[in-house]
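Good morning,

Attaching, inline, the backbone tokens for the sequence recovery test we're adding to the shared suite. The designed sequence is right after.
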């Protein structure tokens, strides 16, 4: 039986459904979760969406946001364990390893419900009963669209669901500029337009709704915190906890900063290292052949995609930065030849 037929049979009667996604959900993580939840509710299922942590305010417009349970608020622990244990179906969206969702990952691993993975990260862990992962997909939201369509229910994709999915695809493709932006992606967007989505409104809600402080923080980072290492075609940014506090940084305020480092002419590898207190969280980006998911997996317990990945370090920020810098010489040849992999115009 195909995976989609198995899912269809599983959803043939009203189910208790639990949906979760990765820590610090981005627009693809939350948009996929709330888009799928909206669809499943229309089909008569009882759905709960739980995120491991909070997420940026610029995602709060998504329909269903008001019912999301945020697990990291500890008072929710017993309730979430109970929901996981009672769920008949558990959807894991936009992450590939259960350890990315902290303790919740172990609750899910041991839960009796059927686990469904819908994701586009490399090297998925083999924990799901039904696995829709596809690392070639531009976004998990692209896969959610396809699953709903393949279940024969595209007509149930309304403006609310469609805008959640559009937000995920728009952000994970870097507004339709990454190489993952396939013909399929554009065809899906055409279908979403037919469903009535307002793409300018989604764009504004996500990209043009920042606080004044966030813009001043960006100015400070670009002026004082950006280091360009020409000999490695690399640029990086390191941010301390004090600096985050000084600019009253909120969840989501540092998102996208790493792309400024990557936007410098000649730069093929960019990193941002942020001291979050318990650990230093790192985002890596690249253009061309240099695989940041390999780099991150090998050196910073991380992973992700070829050109966009993340990792973590439990050393202090300055030690982590030195470790990062110490790794560059062994990659110098790759970093210096990488731009040549792109054909000249
Ligand atoms: P970001 O830098 O935007 O947080 O993440 C970039 C990509 O790498 C995302 O697809 C994200 O899911 C993935 N990623 C971020 N941090 C980690 C991590 O610590 N481990 C793994 N395996 N993937 C990560
Ligand atoms: Mn994604």
């Amino acid at each position: 039986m195909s995976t989609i037929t198995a899912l269809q049979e599983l959803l043939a009667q009203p189910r208790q459904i639990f949906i979760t996604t990765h820590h610090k959900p981005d627009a693809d993580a939350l948009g996929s979760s709330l888009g799928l939840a909206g669809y499943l509710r229309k089909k008569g299922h009882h759905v709960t969406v739980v995120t491991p942590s909070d997420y940026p305010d610029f995602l709060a417009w998504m329909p269903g946001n008001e019912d999301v349970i945020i697990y990291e608020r500890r008072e929710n622990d017993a309730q979430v364990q109970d929901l996981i244990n009672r769920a008949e179906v558990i959807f894991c969206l936009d992450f590939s390893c259960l350890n990315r969702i902290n303790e919740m990952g172990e609750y899910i691993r041991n839960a009796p419900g059927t686990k469904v993975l819908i994701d586009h990260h490399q090297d998925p862990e083999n924990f799901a009963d039904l696995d829709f992962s596809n690392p070639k997909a531009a976004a998990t939201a692209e896969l959610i669209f396809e699953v709903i369509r393949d279940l024969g229910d595209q007509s149930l994709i309304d403006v609310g669901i469609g805008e959640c999915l559009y937000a995920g695809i728009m952000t994970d493709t870097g507004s339709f500029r990454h190489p993952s932006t396939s013909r399929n992606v554009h065809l899906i967007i055409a279908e979403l337009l037919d469903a009535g989505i307002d793409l300018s409104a989604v764009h504004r809600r996500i990209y043009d709704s920042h606080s004044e402080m966030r813009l001043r923080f960006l100015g400070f980072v670009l002026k004082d915190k950006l280091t360009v290492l020409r000999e490695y075609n690399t640029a990086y940014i390191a941010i301390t906890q004090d600096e985050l506090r000084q600019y009253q940084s909120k969840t989501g305020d540092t998102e996208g900063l790493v792309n400024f480092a990557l936007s410098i002419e000649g730069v093929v590898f960019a990193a941002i290292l942020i001291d979050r207190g318990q650990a230093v969280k790192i985002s890596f980006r690249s253009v061309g052949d240099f695989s940041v998911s390999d780099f991150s997996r090998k050196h910073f317990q991380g992973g992700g995609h070829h050109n966009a990945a993340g990792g973590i370090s439990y050393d202090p920020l300055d030690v982590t930065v030195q470790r990062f810098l110490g790794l560059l010489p062994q990659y110098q040849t790759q970093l210096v030849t990488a731009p040549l992999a792109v054909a000249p115009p």
